Structure formats: structure tokens, C-alpha cells
Amino acid sequence: MTSDAPQKDEPGIIRNETGTQRLVGYVLDVGQGDGSARCHLDINETHTNRHGVMHGGIASTLLDNAMGATGSLSLDDTGQQPFLTISMTTQFLAPAKSGTRVTAIGRVVGGGRSLLFIDGTLKAEDGTLIATANGVFKRVPPHKLTSSNPASVLGAETGK
């Protein structure tokens, strides 16, 4: 029986932290010490599309999470500093079949204090490049985390 509580089975490994992580089943690794987060997933039939290969939405989810956690690592060695995806473009390059382990890795390529430009790669365990992505990620200031207005997190408050 699996628990829905976040699990850390070794330093830097995060399981079951979010609803998306529990639903998809990926493992987040923020403990490599190189500033890049990794999302690992063992693909099974629940991750495939009608053609029998990993669904593009699953690939994008893995890339988004690895890239966002990489942004977090730029400020916090535990990868817990919240970053939000502002935009992300994904290029699908090769299929990945059920039974394959894939890993998404993020890498900061630019940015400033509040916005980061992050690239991501998704590879199969044999080294095949499955997809790439690039995106813009926004750091969530600590005072915005307590707001009950979701728009305020992005700085989209209205002047009422």
C-alpha cells in the first residue's frame, strides 16, 4: 500500500509530493549537486497514447517538472523554492515505448532575479533523445505564497 504523503527514500529524491506526481508516477531527483533537477519515469501502458507510445502530454509534464525544479535549485538546494511556468515549448523527436525508463533534465540558460530561461531534455535509458523543451519560469516571492488570490502569484492583481 502506498502513502500519499511525500516520501524521501534518499537525500534529494522526492516521491508523491504533488497530485500530478502521484497521478503520473514520476520521481523527482534534486540531489545531484549540479544545479539540474531530473524527473524519472518508468513508462507503462497508462502513459501511452493510442499508438502505443508515451503520450506527448506526459513528456511535457516530465520536462515541465524537471525544468521548474531546476529553477528552484538556483535558489534552494532542496528544490523547494516555488517557480511557475510562464511559457514552454516542446519539440517531440522520437517515441518511447512502454517498459522504457525516461529521464527529463533541466538546465538554466539565462535570466535574472525573477525570471529564468530553462532548457530541458527528455531521454530514454538507452540515450535516445525523446523530446526537448525551452521555457520561461518565474520565481514566486515568499510574500505571494500566502495570498488567497491565485492571480497575485503571477503579479496579475487587479487595481480594484
UniProtKB/TrEMBL annotation:
Keywords from the UniProt entry: Cell projection, Cilium, Flagellum, Hydrolase
Entry keyword Hydrolase: yes
Keyword Signal belongs to the record: no
EC identifiers of the protein: 3.1.2.-
Sample GO molecular function, one term: hydrolase activity
SUPFAM superfamilies with a match to the protein in the record: Thioesterase/thiol ester dehydrase-isomerase
Residue ranges of coiled coil: none
Cross-referenced Gene3D superfamilies: Hotdog Thioesterase
Transmembrane segment boundaries: none
CDD domains xref list: PaaI_thioesterase
Domain annotation Thioesterase: ranges: 51-130
PANTHER family noted in UniProt: ACYL-COENZYME A THIOESTERASE 13, THIOESTERASE SUPERFAMILY MEMBER-RELATED
Stated family: Belongs to the thioesterase PaaI family.
NCBIfam families linked to this entry: unchar_dom_1
Name of the protein: PaaI family thioesterase
Source organism (scientific name): Roseibium algae
